[in-house]
Write a sequence for this structure.
């Protein structure tokens, strides 16, 4: 587990920072402090410095912030919009665990969330 | 909103730069690193100021801020020049719900699943280009015979399904379009531009009618289907987006493929590494896209919606703001030692396809086309090389574009 410094940085943004564990494409785990009020994509990309393209900047147009969420968390996340489902359906590597990180707002209750970055495509 | 008078601006931040000059194009490698290291500045174009943004972080702010910037051209005197395609409303010139609706309808055609279904067709079609080059002997112009025609094959022939005759009508329009970017305010577009545009319009309309009657596995049929399922795309929108996709793809992939070939064949040692280990191809292409001038030195304008400061520079409502994506690729705070070409750099978040809501819908198609083109060229002709090992490109194209004019190569 790396990036403990991110956790401290995140706490400095105020409030209780939920800590997310993200596994990158090389199998390395990173603990990242979520930025409450921003999207999970912003947390992973800008707070965690992870390789998430997020080309469309969080507009739910590009599907380049695709992640696999741990099974036990799937039902605890907000339901997918029609737009998100359409985009996931057009990916080669989507699975029932797939979500677009830009569509998940970070709230304190996400503490302990575990996810894996999907392959770039 | 009115046009901003130059005397409102800090004179120290006004630069005497002609964005349309060939000298600027030719010297981008020395000029743009300077843009990448300074706050946004002003240039006066036809008497009205524009803002140029070259630093990576400033550009990201412009790309991502939907409140303070719009892509919709304000109706101000002299701003007709921003209407590049003579009345066609492109996705790049829309914002908000209208943009989101059309983007959503078009997304499936450019998705990973859709593009994967075209992989074999694209490869076969690009192979035909190489067959033609080989049949004509050892020497060839890699721009005319390969870089500038790749997208004719992948997008226009395979995805849109245009016949050679139909492609030629579109190419004629493409040849004329750069002239519109040099047209001064108040001047009419040159008659040959209008004629070429009319011919392309008639051709696309005919195709739409034909595909409506006989739908197939192609982009236009997919867009028609999207329309007819929910009355979502109007005929005008259908036309405009078919047109936009073809025009944008032509320009973008010509410069992109030229840049890729120049990046790789201009660095034979690194090309050898890529040939030995094909898993390096995607990151090598990203480095070509970053280093070799693909992105152009200025984009289409965005327009400020209010008065504010960006990176310490005052911007006023209505001002055109133009990001220099290629300058951001030379920003040393983002890409250390930016002039060095290094396929192992694996650069992330290169702004060659933009960023934010208007990030290029065809970025996956472009990257797929470039990948197949590079792999087929060095796979079939492992000894292919630049005719002159000391080759230096000459740059042409529309205002903002960095298109290599020609690139003599040998197959063997």
């Amino acid at each position: 587990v790396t990036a403990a410094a991110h956790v401290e940085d995140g706490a400095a943004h105020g409030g209780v920072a939920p800590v997310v564990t993200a596994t990158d494409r090389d199998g390395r785990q990173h603990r990242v402090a979520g930025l409450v009020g921003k999207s999970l994509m912003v947390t992973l990309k800008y707070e965690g410095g992870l390789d998430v393209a997020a080309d469309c900047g969080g507009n739910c147009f590009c599907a380049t912030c695709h992640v696999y969420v741990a099974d036990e968390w799937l039902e605890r996340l907000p339901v997918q919009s029609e737009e998100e489902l359409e985009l996931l359906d057009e990916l080669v590597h989507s699975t029932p665990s797939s979500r677009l990180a830009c569509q998940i707002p970070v709230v304190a209750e996400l503490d302990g969330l575990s996810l894996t970055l999907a392959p770039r495509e | 909103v009115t046009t901003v008078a130059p005397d409102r601006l800090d004179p120290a931040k006004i630069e005497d730069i002609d964005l349309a000059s060939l000298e600027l194009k030719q010297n981008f490698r020395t000029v743009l690193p300077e843009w990448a290291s300074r706050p946004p500045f002003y240039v006066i174009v036809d008497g009205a100021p524009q803002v140029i943004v070259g630093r990576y972080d400033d550009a990201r702010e412009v790309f991502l801020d939907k409140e303070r910037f719009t892509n919709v051209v304000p109706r101000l005197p002299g701003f007709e020049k921003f209407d590049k395609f003579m009345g066609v409303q492109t996705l790049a010139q829309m914002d908000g719900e209208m943009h989101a609706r059309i983007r959503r309808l078009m997304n499936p055609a450019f998705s990973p699943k859709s593009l994967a279904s075209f992989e074999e067709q694209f490869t076969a079609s690009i192979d035909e280009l190489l067959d033609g080059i080989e049949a004509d002997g050892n020497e060839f112009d890699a721009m005319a015979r390969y870089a500038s025609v790749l997208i004719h094959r992948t997008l226009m022939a395979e995805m849109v399904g245009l016949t050679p005759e139909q492609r030629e009508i579109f190419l004629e329009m493409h040849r004329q379009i750069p002239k519109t970017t040099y047209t001064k305010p108040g001047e009419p577009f040159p008659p040959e531009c209008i004629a070429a545009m009319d011919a392309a319009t008639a051709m696309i309309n005919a195709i739409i009618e034909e595909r409506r009657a006989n739908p197939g596995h192609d982009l236009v049929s997919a867009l028609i289907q999207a329309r007819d399922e929910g009355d979502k795309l109007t005929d005008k929108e259908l036309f405009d987006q078919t047109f936009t996709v073809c025009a944008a793809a032509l320009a973008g992939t010509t410069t992109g493929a030229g840049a890729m070939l120049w990046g790789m064949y201009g660095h034979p040692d690194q090309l050898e590494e890529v040939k030995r280990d094909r898993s390096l191809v995607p990151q090598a292409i990203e480095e070509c896209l970053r280093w070799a001038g693909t992105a152009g030195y200025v984009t289409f304008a965005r327009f400020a919606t209010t008065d504010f400061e960006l990176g310490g520079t005052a911007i006023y409502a209505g001002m055109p703001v133009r990001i220099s994506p290629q300058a951001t690729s030379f920003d040393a705070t983002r890409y250390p030692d930016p002039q060095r070409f290094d396929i192992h750099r694996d650069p992330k978040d290169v702004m060659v396809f933009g960023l934010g809501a208007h990030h290029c819908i065809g970025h996956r198609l472009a990257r797929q086309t470039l990948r197949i083109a590079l792999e087929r060229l060095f796979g079939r002709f492992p000894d292919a090389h630049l005719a002159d090992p000391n080759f230096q490109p000459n740059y042409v194209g529309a205002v903002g574009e960095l298109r290599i004019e020609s690139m003599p190569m040998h197959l063997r």
Q: What stands out?
A: Chain B is about 50% helix and 10% strand. The interface with chain A takes residues 63-64, 100, 103-104, 107-108, 111-114, 116, 348-349, 353, 355-357, 359, 361, 363-364 of chain B (CB under 8 Å). The first strand of chain B starts at residue 14 and ends at 15.
